[in-house]
């Protein structure tokens, strides 16, 4: 479960997992223990997703011909 | 010498009978003889000095392109034909070769090709009649070719990731397009990572640069979706996006590609090959990321849905659970204490983020913490249920788990108590 909820999971994957959890809890007769586990996992995904959304700075990099990445400082209003 | 001869001539007319004088000694009358080269050079000079560069309209006949890139063709009307040549440097600027019989206008200078003595028009520009002329023709030719290969088929379109973690951008580092894209991403989805591959977006070599950038960015594996484009401009300015290398690079790209070239009305070949055509760079950015408020709305609803699902499940299980509730206990303490702690830290983090004033919409998220507490399964324990577990932590669920004298723990709403089994009882439905 640690890998499913870890902090560096992409937002997309997290939201997809959250929907899976919701769908499974809403449709299947999952055993109580499993339902509790899913609930907990879902709560962690909600929290983590919110944490990601709260990061306010767009990160902009430039991919150079050498294949290296260089942070790009640009005006973005 | 000439006047003398003329006088003689008159003399002989006047005096018919006079015997002819002896013929004058032969005089060398040598007309000036020009060499062919001299003549051609002289006529060429005349032509070039006396006729200013001009536009000539006519029908294209016999257009051929040499290996060196020079184009030779005739311009004709009903009665006459004019030889024309367009040298490689200018011919390379043509979007495509005109077709036989096409009405065109040619701008150039009249000259004479000394080696052959042909006079001809050295064409600097060739334009087809009608709006966009040759550009339109080139566009249609390439579109037909790509269509024939199936590269424009709707079923080739890839799926747009709902929340891309990384957006790749192929455009000029200095263009307005990049600025517009970044503004929109920063406003709608500031958590996004952006990787730019800067290229020329017009002029010689731009198409190949754009194609190479798409390939590099696609191969890097960084981007979940790529925006390729530039701001508005003339047909010539946008032309790179109508060239075959760009079209093929888009088709070969491993990830979803949005093409955003110019303003609303400009449709390019790259728009047709891409998975999505956006009317402007800003619109492309809007299309690839969800608005933060939409994602937040989904997240806001999630705890409620989770809680209701858990509750509904509990209702369905109620009968079975209640039959066994005196004998079966479950330990969830081990599971819940760490979960509670992580919820608390998450709530604290969330509150900090909200207070940081990141976005006023987010402040309402603080309310979530309270709602989640209400939904927690711990409140089930508060209604009078308890969960038994062995000292090892194992959840005890069957009569066989409770031999007489077995010591175990009971997790109740506000803590745990030690308990001891008095052994199984006869009637199973003692409860309810």
Kindly list the characteristics that best describe this protein.
heterodimer; A: 77 residues; mainly alpha; two-stranded antiparallel ribbon; B: 432 residues; alpha/beta; OB fold (Dihydrolipoamide Acetyltransferase, E2P); Rossmann fold; five-stranded mixed beta barrel; five-stranded parallel beta sheet; 13 strands; 20% strand; rod-shaped; disordered N terminus
Q: Can you walk through the features of this model?
A:
The complex is a heterodimer of chains A (77) and B (432). Chain A has a two-stranded antiparallel sheet with strand order 1-2. In chain A, a hairpin with a 5-residue loop joins strand 1 and strand 2 (69-71). With 77 residues, chain A is mostly helical. The N and C termini of chain A lie far apart (41 Å). Chain A has one domain (2-71). In chain A, helix 2 (11-27) packs antiparallel against helix 3. Chain A has helices spanning 2-5, 11-27, 32-53; strands spanning 59-63, 69-71. The radius of gyration of chain A is 18 Å and the shape is elongated. Chain B is an alpha/beta fold. Chain B folds into three domains: 36-129, Beta Barrel (OB fold (Dihydrolipoamide Acetyltransferase, E2P)); 138-290, Rossmann fold (3-Layer(aba) Sandwich); 293-430, no CATH class. Chain B has 13 helices and 13 strands. Chain B has helices at 2-14, 36-50, 88-91, 133-148, 176-188, 206-220, 244-252, 269-273, 281-288, 292-324, 333-355, 366-375, 378-382; strands at residues 54-65, 71-76, 81-86, 103-113, 118-128, 166-171, 193-198, 225-230, 256-261, 276-277, 387-389, 407-412, 415-420. In chain B, the strands form three sheets. Chain B has a five-stranded mixed beta barrel. A five-stranded parallel sheet of chain B has the order 7-6-8-9-10, with helices on both faces. In chain B, strands 11-12-13 form a three-stranded antiparallel sheet, with no helix packed on it. The longest helix of chain B has 33 residues, at 292-324. The model of chain B is unreliable at 1-16, 320-340 and 353-374 (pLDDT under 50). Chains A and B meet through helix 2, helix 3 and strand 1 of A and helix 5, strand 7, helix 6, helix 10 and helix 11 of B. Strand 1 of chain A pairs parallel with strand 7 of chain B.
């Amino acid at each position: 479960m640690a890998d499913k909820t870890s902090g560096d999971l992409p937002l997309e994957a997290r939201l997809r997992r959250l929907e899976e959890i919701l769908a499974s809890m809403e449709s299947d007769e999952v055993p109580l223990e499993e339902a509790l586990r899913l609930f907990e996992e879902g709560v962690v995904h909600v929290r983590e997703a919110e944490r990601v959304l709260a990061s306010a700075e767009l990160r902009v990099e430039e991919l150079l011909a050498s294949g290296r990445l260089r942070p790009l400082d640009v005006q973005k209003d | 010498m000439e006047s003398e001869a003329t006088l003689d001539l008159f003399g002989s007319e006047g005096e018919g009978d006079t015997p002819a004088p002896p013929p004058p000694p032969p005089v060398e009358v040598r007309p000036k003889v020009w060499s062919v080269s001299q003549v051609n050079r002289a006529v060429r000079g005349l032509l070039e000095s006396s006729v200013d560069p001009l536009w000539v309209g006519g029908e294209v006949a016999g257009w051929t392109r040499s290996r060196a890139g020079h184009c030779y063709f005739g311009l004709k009307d009903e009665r006459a034909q004019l030889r024309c040549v367009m040298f490689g440097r200018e011919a390379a600027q043509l979007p495509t070769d005109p077709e036989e019989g096409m009405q065109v206008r040619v701008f150039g200078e009249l000259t004479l090709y000394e080696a052959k003595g042909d006079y001809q028009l050295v064409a600097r520009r060739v334009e087809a009649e009608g709006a966009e002329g040759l550009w339109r023709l080139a566009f249609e030719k390439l579109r037909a070719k790509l269509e024939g290969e199936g590269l424009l088929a709707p079923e080739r379109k890839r799926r747009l990731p709902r929340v891309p973690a990384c957006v790749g951008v192929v455009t000029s580092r200095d263009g307005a397009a990049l600025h517009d894209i970044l503004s929109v991403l920063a406003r709608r989805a500031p958590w996004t990572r952006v990787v730019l591959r800067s290229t020329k977006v017009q002029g010689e070599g731009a198409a190949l640069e754009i194609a190479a950038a798409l390939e590099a960015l696609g191969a890097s594996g960084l981007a979940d979706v790529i925006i390729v484009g530039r701001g508005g401009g003339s047909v010539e300015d946008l032309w790179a996006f109508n060239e075959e290398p760009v079209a093929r690079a888009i088709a070969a790209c491993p990830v979803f590609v949005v093409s955003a070239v110019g303003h609303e009305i400009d449709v390019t070949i790259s728009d047709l090959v891409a998975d999505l055509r956006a009317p402007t760079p800003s619109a492309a950015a809007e299309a690839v990321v969800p608005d933060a408020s939409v994602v937040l709305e989904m997240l806001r609803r999630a705890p409620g849905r989770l809680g209701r699902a858990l509750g509904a499940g509990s209702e369905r299980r109620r009968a079975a659970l209640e039959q066994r509730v005196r004998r079966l206990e479950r330990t969830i303490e081990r599971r819940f204490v760490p979960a509670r702690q992580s919820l608390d830290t998450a709530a604290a983090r969330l509150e900090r983020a909200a207070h940081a004033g990141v976005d006023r919409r987010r402040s309402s998220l603080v309310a979530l913490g309270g709602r989640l507490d209400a939904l927690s399964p711990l409140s089930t324990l508060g209604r009078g249920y308890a969960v038994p577990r062995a000292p090892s932590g194992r959840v005890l669920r069957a009569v066989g788990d409770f031999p007489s004298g077995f010591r175990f723990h009971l997790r109740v709403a506000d803590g745990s108590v030690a308990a001891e089994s008095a052994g199984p009882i006869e009637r199973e439905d003692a409860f309810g």
